[in-house]
Amino acid sequence: MSLRFEGLDRFGLGDLAEHFPEQFEEAYRIGSELKLPDEFEGFKPRMVFFAGMGGSAVGGDLLRDWLRQRVKVPMEVCRGYNPPAYLTEDSLVFAISYSGNTEETLSFMLRAHRLGCRIISLSSGGLMEKLSKKLRIPHVKVPAGLLPRAAIAYLSTPLIPLIKRFIDDVESFLWEVDETLDNLRMLRDRVSRRVSVEENPAKKMAKALLGKMPVVFGYGYLSSVARRFKNQLNENSKVAARWDELPELDHNEVMAYQKPEDYVKNQLIVFLRSRVEPPEFTARVEATRKVMEREVSDIYEVFGLGSSALSNMYTLLYLTDFTSIYLAYLRGVDPGDTSLIEDLKKTLDSNLGIPSKLRSEFGDGG
Hints:
The protein is an alpha/beta fold. The protein has 15 helices and nine strands. The protein folds into two domains: 34-173 and 338-362, Rossmann fold, CATH 3.40.50; 186-331, Rossmann fold. The longest helix is centred in the last third of the chain and has 23 residues, at 309-331.
């Protein structure tokens, strides 16, 4: 099968992937330049919440996993309509919706506003921007016209300089941003569409995945990248895929390989690994691999680049994004097409009418 994409990639996901390093750099600048109201001055949150759905929630996943073992402020990603009962006025909420019209996130944002939380919203426009102006919520506006999953730089990187303003410890990790940008540029030279299959690790992995059941394993700060890769395989490649994380999977998932069904034998397992992983995870990955490798089609181990957690996270994200696009090309499907999701949204909107209710309650204007 061919890796040709002419006429297939109608939404230009391949082109967007080529420019990911520039998007990462621009997105960081956008977050750095946001002016916050006086009531944010000196505010130190008790908890940080990231509200979002789908690709818009992944930015929160990445920030939470990057900082979880480094700062003392708890962070949680919320996918749904309602905040948890422990969200209080001492919390900081990032409401993230690329389109600005995600009904679950809009509902979460409004309920958090009624609780008196400090909120920062992020979107490319839509109802979220209008409600933010009306409610005097500071809003990060990112470039429009992209598919949410192709806007991951704009949905995650602006949060880094923003969260630094509220959690002092983040300052000591900002050097990782520069390393990440350098390594993303370096990686592009290896995974770009102009690089042959023989020299391109993303194309090689896509060919290996063709016709297989992808299973993606991560650990620690790579868990969110594993989940992202699984989602990209679903949306871009149009294939069923699973993900799990170590060490938890060694307490349940591993038993599926003791007496495997036939479908297990068609799995291709991808271990996402870091160049700076703790020794206990190195030992666990190697032991887990030995248990599984006799029972599955193949096992891939993919390493990030760099000496920092952030660089390993984003370079793995970049590599696996390209892999999902190349797999779509191999399967002859448009990686940008998500018509089933759009049809489902229309059905739910007509049945529930939540966006219409929000517009009615708060008005369509600024």
